[in-house]
Task: inverse folding
């Protein structure tokens, strides 16, 4: 068997055995291909019968590795609702949610879930009500569907979900008028008159706690407060969303968060299953630290990632993993 074929078989074996793990009575022992291999490959793939620091005790059945719920260390949780037929239809990649999730994590507002839904009023209303009913969620970030065309239905749906009427927000209307006029003078629009489509973007639910200006476009960002929760409604155009978030929303409303500490160890040609007993041990000893394993079969890289509110605790966990894996000849690169 060629090296590539052996590697593929070994990956397939790990995937196949994962779902059967709970039905096994003892640890899985992977036997490498007997064909001579370079020393680095043997360190990566051979599993010996003798005990080592990462062996699974005989009375433990093998389970699929899982990510510890690190939100228990957070004081607040957020959610993201991305709206657009183009997203759920696979026409447009949802880069907004990825960007928002990263920013929120760094600011200390970890995301509990990301949901993509269609431009259907009933579905938008139902999803918003689910988010508001979730006791763990303090902030909801809604993006998309604020444009000038009939399929942009987010503001109307937010109004229905909150039981509020739609009104023309005068400051936004005046700003749209100025922008249309400037665009006409620059030759970008045929008429300096505000159209019904333009006016749609100034029609928002009543009683906003704050209206963001949007220096890159016409549709405003809006924040509502409902029963102690905040709903941030943002345009779906990435440039506009990022501008509102970084220039207005973040400094005014997200300055009080405390970001989690993140540390990683990266291994090459490491077998993920060998880390199972150590991860199980550490999650019991350090319940406040998230420990996750993330294999990449294309690059042959395995990332062990730790997250937590206490930097010293995170460093302690990373050091234990580094030391224990080094005893097996696996050297992790710290990130």
Result:
């Amino acid at each position: 068997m060629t090296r590539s074929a052996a590697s593929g078989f070994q990956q397939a074996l790990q995937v196949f055995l994962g779902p059967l793990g709970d039905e096994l009575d003892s640890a899985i022992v992977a036997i490498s291909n007997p064909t001579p291999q370079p020393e680095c490959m043997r360190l990566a793939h051979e599993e010996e019968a003798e005990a080592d620091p990462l062996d699974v005790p005989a009375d433990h059945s093998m389970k699929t590795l899982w990510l510890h719920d690190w939100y228990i260390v957070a004081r607040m949780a957020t959610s993201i609702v991305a709206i657009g037929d183009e997203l759920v239809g696979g026409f447009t990649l949802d880069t907004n949610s990825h960007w928002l999730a990263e920013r929120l994590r760094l600011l200390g507002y970890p995301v509990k879930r990301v949901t993509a839904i269609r431009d259907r009023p009933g579905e938008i209303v139902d999803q918003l009500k689910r988010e508001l009913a979730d006791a763990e969620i303090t902030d909801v970030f809604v993006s998309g569907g604020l444009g000038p065309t009939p399929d942009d239905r987010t503001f109307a749906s937010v109004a229905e979900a909150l039981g509020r009427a739609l009104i023309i927000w005068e400051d936004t209307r005046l700003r749209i008028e100025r922008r249309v006029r400037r665009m006409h003078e620059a030759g970008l629009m045929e008429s300096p008159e505000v159209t019904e489509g333009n006016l749609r973007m100034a029609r928002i639910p009543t009683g906003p706690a704050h209206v963001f200006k949007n220096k890159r476009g016409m549709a405003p960002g809006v924040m509502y407060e409902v029963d102690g929760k905040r709903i941030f409604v943002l345009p779906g155009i990435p440039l506009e969303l990022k501008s509102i978030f970084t220039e207005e929303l973040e400094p005014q409303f997200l300055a009080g968060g405390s970001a989690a500490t993140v540390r990683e160890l990266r291994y090459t040609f490491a077998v993920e299953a060998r880390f199972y007993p150590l991860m199980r041990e550490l999650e019991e000893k350090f319940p406040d630290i998230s420990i996750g394993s993330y294999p990449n079969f294309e690059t042959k890289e395995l990332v062990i990632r730790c997250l937590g509110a206490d930097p010293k605790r995170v460093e302690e966990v990373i050091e234990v993993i580094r030391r224990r894996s080094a005893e097996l000849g696996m050297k992790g690169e710290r990130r």
User: Anything to note?
Assistant: Residues 155 and 204 are 6 Å apart (CA to CA).
